[in-house]
């Protein structure tokens, strides 16, 4: 089970880095999305895999029975919501940048910096 | 001192900006009311932070648990001298910058939602200073980030969009790496509470793995703090924002990274400092040198100042690398001094543009005659940044350099001194070009307009003068500040008070989260 998750993490990470290094804004957004999900998977594995029983205390018992670990799930849920909002912002920003600068290649955008070979 | 509960003391610095943010958003179509609420909110934050500092000033650490969940399970907030001092200085900057923001292009910013975003930024910053939980720190980082994204691209010019793309991608990448580190640390120890980690990490068998994780955190926080070689996003982005926005960025954003480094490497990863310290030392030297060389090469005031942020972060890292009580005290003093001076210099850069017509040093000149008060006010933070006595920067540099000499790190001390000289050079460049040189046509034109703006001039210069006053106070009356820094360094290095305040007498969580069978049937 862990092996499968570790493999999935590796594949997602590799794809994310590949997309992030490409010189195209849309691919970079997808890369960021994949990277976020790869990390979420890593948190999930770190919090132990196994039993699928929900973490509920049975009636009459004073503690938890064998169950899934709820904390990583809470962490991932938070991380998903945050990364969703940030990716939404990023998409809008990239769209505006594309519209205003007429390119999707981040290397071709040099509005904010002096041109190559010129210090000031 | 009023007997306020620690819960209230710790939540007020977060609750005030949150409430202000909500109110400002509601008052979006009423600029005057929005400004009043925004100013009140900043003043309220300063007041709340002073109450907090009052409660921890005698050396006590206060902590609270959200939702009354016992320590390692719930989310903790805690404040010691360092946290409280950082929150107070955030409050001070909040007030200074919101006064400045009333002038110099306020209407356009307000239409783009300046006030809600501004208080959102403050919310994230104070939350990051007060939290005692690593995952929670990630959440505060993200709150800070999304507000800073919004502020950075306000105005939507081409340069801002370009800068925004680079700033956003790098910062998202780095916070995701931080999250990965948090997840792996949880897998290793089963806890994310920083005080609990300080107790349980030394018991982990594989200390090499702990050091590896520490490097991951160094990478993530280092990029936030603009440490070599991860600083390029800062001079690429900061100079495109409007003057008050870049002033609050320069004051606080990188310093949250430095604070996180100080907190994590004196508390969570204190056990592996022997392995990490030399790495931090090399990074510190490279950060100082590359930053100041960048500053020496440029002619746009804001780009010079942006590169100086980078080089000054190096000095704070020297303190962390040496890590004797004196060195940590130096880093603390440096952070506090630098926040005031840097915000002030960026505000002055904003006034330069209004009074002189441009940010470009080649196009302006002669301001010593058309704006003599500004020239005088520029000298204080400029010389303080370069580290000349009797200003605050001198004492900060003095403590940092002395501590590295005492600990035998001569190379670091020599680098720090040389970088100080280069800093002075680039400050003299701004002085010569903007103030001393004969006035240009552009500056003469702007000078006329500057003389006519009475009320606006007061709003622009009052915060600059107040911050210069703070710099002078720290410089001339340095003993209590140095003493405060020493006490807070003692508290950071001997972290029993912190762990005790957060955890009480609870036993440390030692078992990794692995076998579920151990739990009660």
From TrEMBL, chain A:
Topology in membrane: Multi-pass membrane protein
The membrane spanning regions, by residue number, are: 6-22, 29-51, 71-94
- Chief location category: membrane
Of the GO CC terms on this record, one is:
plasma membrane
User: One Pfam family, short name please?
Assistant: Oxidored_q2
Annotated keywords: Cell membrane, Membrane, Transmembrane, Transmembrane helix
Q: Where in the cell is it found?
A: Cell membrane
Q: Where is the signal peptide, in residue numbers?
A: none
What protein family is recorded? Belongs to the CPA3 antiporters (TC 2.A.63) subunit C family.
What PANTHER family does the record point to?
ANTIPORTER SUBUNIT MNHC2-RELATED
User: What's the name of the protein?
Assistant: Cation:proton antiporter
From TrEMBL, chain B:
Task: Report TM segments.
Answer: 6-27, 39-62, 82-102, 114-131, 137-155, 167-188, 208-234, 246-269, 275-301, 313-337, 373-395, 407-428, 458-477
One family from Pfam that matches here is: Proton_antipo_M
Q: How does it sit in the membrane?
A: Multi-pass membrane protein
Sorted alphabetically, the Gene Ontology cellular component annotations on this record are:
plasma membrane
For the biological process aspect of GO, one term held by this record is: ATP synthesis coupled electron transport
Stored InterPro entries:
CPA3_Na-H_Antiporter_D, NADH_UbQ_OxRdtase, ND/Mrp_TM
Q: Where is the NADH:quinone oxidoreductase/Mrp antiporter transmembrane domain?
A: 132-418
* Source taxon at top rank: Bacteria
Instruction: Respond yes or no to whether keyword Cell membrane is given for this record.
Output: yes
Identify a single GO molecular function assigned to this protein. Answer: NADH dehydrogenase (ubiquinone) activity
| Entry keyword annotation includes Transmembrane | yes
- Similarity section: Belongs to the CPA3 antiporters (TC 2.A.63) subunit D family.
Name this polypeptide is given: Na+/H+ antiporter subunit D
